[in-house]
Design a protein that fits this description.
This protein is an alpha/beta fold. It is built from 14 helices and 17 strands. Strands 6, 7, 8, 9, 10, 11, 12, 13 and 14 form a nine-stranded parallel beta sheet that branches. Strands 3-2-1-4 form a four-stranded mixed beta sheet. Strands 5-15-16-17 form a four-stranded antiparallel beta sheet, with helices on one face. Bound molecules: guanine and fe (iii) ion. This is Guanine deaminase.
Amino acid sequence: IYCGTFAHCRSLSELDICAKGAIGVDEAGVIAFIEREVEEIEDVIKKYDGWNDAEVLQSGESGFFFPGFIDTHTHASQHPNTGLFGKTTLLSWLETYTFPMESSLSSLSKAATVYSNFVSRTLSHGTTTCAYYATIHVPTTNLLADICLKRGQRALVGRVCMNMMSPEYYRDASVSDAVKDSKASIDYIRSIDPSGDIVKPIITPRFAPSCTAECLAGLGQLAKETGTSIQTHISENKPEVQLVRELFPESKSYTDVYDTAGLLTPKTILAHAVHLSAEEVQTLKQSGTKISHCPASNTALTSGCAPVRQLLDVGLTVGLGTDVSGGFSPSILEECRQAIWVSRFVAMNTADDAKLSTEEVLYLATRGGAQVVGLDGKVGGFDVGMEWDAQHICLGAVKEGGEQEGRFAGNVDLFGFETAEDRVNKWVYSGDDRNTKSVWVRGRLVHRR
Ligand code: GUN
Ligand code: FE
């Protein structure tokens, strides 16, 4: 029974904060009851059968429970490159930093280090579900799935496909290789977790410029035959959009390239979506395709400012993605801040309603993300019947000698007038992984500090 303060998003605009709550989580990790206005925990225990021996965990006065974060787009294979982008933009960044790093992960021992470090890092930042890109190598992609399953992090794990405009040393030799290797990884990942509750495969064409039309169509067909999710990038930066125009002259648009290949489905996650036309947005909406917004990466690589308010107003489903190492942080909390900042730059050039609020970005980071990765109604919030994917946030305190725990340690309520809502805002704007004390997936403790 998780007792004390909890907070979660009910809708895009509604953050529900309960100060005197008690959430009962059963042995399967499912939320069995939620009580509010609890004065004595004994009364709750009496009310429900079979909870006499339950362990009671308190949020603490300045702490609260919050749903685990959902990272809808990141590259585990680029973790060692975090912070390396200089003044490059997408296409030069891929050549300079990304392809050499990814190609080196053919090595099982190197991949074991990189992937277990990255899973530890994302878990420590409260990410309970993550959509990962690995590399083109099947054995190490499968190793990433093994690590996620063992550590208990929900994950979609994708073997990257790329058969053109890629270096000789790092590419699929043929369309049949791309399809066959994708299938091999799908089969492996389904064999280690047949229920798909923790790890699932995801078909991963890198992006249109690295895949021929035949390769994209082959992967679209594979997705149809196997019922697998799909992830790729779309319309991230202007030279890339121009390149797609040149490479696919018969296509109406970047979106049309994917549509033609059968890659736009309700189980498709497209990252970035910065420079789409209104018609493309409509096509995405009609196909049920989901969007991963990656603001830190879009700024780092000077790709642009995604018009998130417009995408939401049209009714597209949007989540947040760290996009390491285009993005420089494995933290979805950081991505929340970046989403807020970018929306303010959009607002400065358009209209005030482009601004995203704290509640809105937290929604994208949790329930929105759950919809993007196909876990709607299962994770991302606290409702009876949902699974306990959660983080225990504790705000820091200044200790003797000025030592601080948590970045905003000096900001804790010294004078007694701080509301729970204030605490959530302080966490969003100035918290970090030091405030994330425990993390659970389906009731299993997967991280503690
Ligand atoms: N487009 C194609 N590959 C990549 C990648 O690895 N990262 C980002 N941000 N965009 C891409
Ligand atoms: Fe990416």
